[in-house]
Amino acid sequence: MATLYSTSPDGILIAYEVTGHGPALMMLHGAGKTRRDWRRGGYVERLKDDFTVITVDIRGSGDSDSPIEIEDYGIEKIYADLLSVADDCKVSQFSIWGYSFGGNIARYLGAWSDRITSVAIIGVPFGPAVDADFDRFIDEFIEKWEPLVQAQQSDPLNEKAHRSVIKGRIPMWLSCFQAMRKWPSVEPGDVRCPAMLVVGTRNKNTMEWVLANHSELDTANVCVAIVEGLNHMQEFTQIDRVFPVVASFLFGHGCLHSD
């Protein structure tokens, strides 16, 4: 499958692929993953006969450019990236399916753009982009990796530091995570289009959020699908459990509340 590139308003190249025919569906991968994971996981094959599937490498990932400044990962810039991809595909309206990090981003398109017809968010809650647990993780990530990045920058011949830093795209994640702290909160009522939140019962943080906010969800344009026994990783890997739930939503057959 050919890799295509879109140029974002700030000059960043965003890699994407287009497969299939039908209504446009943009798919956003999780952190540390790429657009190709949707194909490897079997999702593209199941969707291509009914949708024009647009799989995107979020900036900093895969074959997209990977800038390293905090300001490069403002949500407004990532938002513009994805609309630029849609423009290049000559798509005026489209659905979004985002897992984990991609689901976090998908919330903003659903809240900010009238071009989004529906949004499926896998494994992440509404509210701030960075909750208390994630905030602690970011502090620990900075403490662990920032010294190694500084060592690599001050001594490019430090082979160990170079391998660890570059292979893991550590400078990018240091900037991205810190930028996410400034992303505005998105609440269920902010979403302009039909939305589905899919969560496994073993995804502790998101399940706790769903239970604590059920009344807000009931009054918003968001339905919740709870999949028994899945943790956050399995919300992606267990395609036979997750795909039918999201596909039913995308086809407009209503909200499924459990499997």
Could you explain the architecture of this structure?
The protein has 259 residues and is an alpha/beta fold. It folds into two domains: 4-129 and 186-250, Alpha/Beta hydrolase fold, catalytic domain (Rossmann fold), CATH 3.40.50; 135-176, no CATH class. The protein is 42% helix and 18% strand. The protein is built from eleven helices and eight strands. It has helices spanning 36-40, 43-47, 75-88, 101-112, 132-154, 159-167, 170-180, 204-212, 214-219, 234-237, 239-250, and strands at 4-7, 13-19, 24-28, 52-56, 94-99, 116-122, 195-200, 222-227. Strands 1-2-4-3-5-6-7-8 form an eight-stranded mixed beta sheet, sandwiched between helices. Strand 5, helix 4 and strand 6 form a beta-alpha-beta unit. Helix 5 packs antiparallel against helix 6. The model is unreliable at 253-259 (pLDDT under 50).
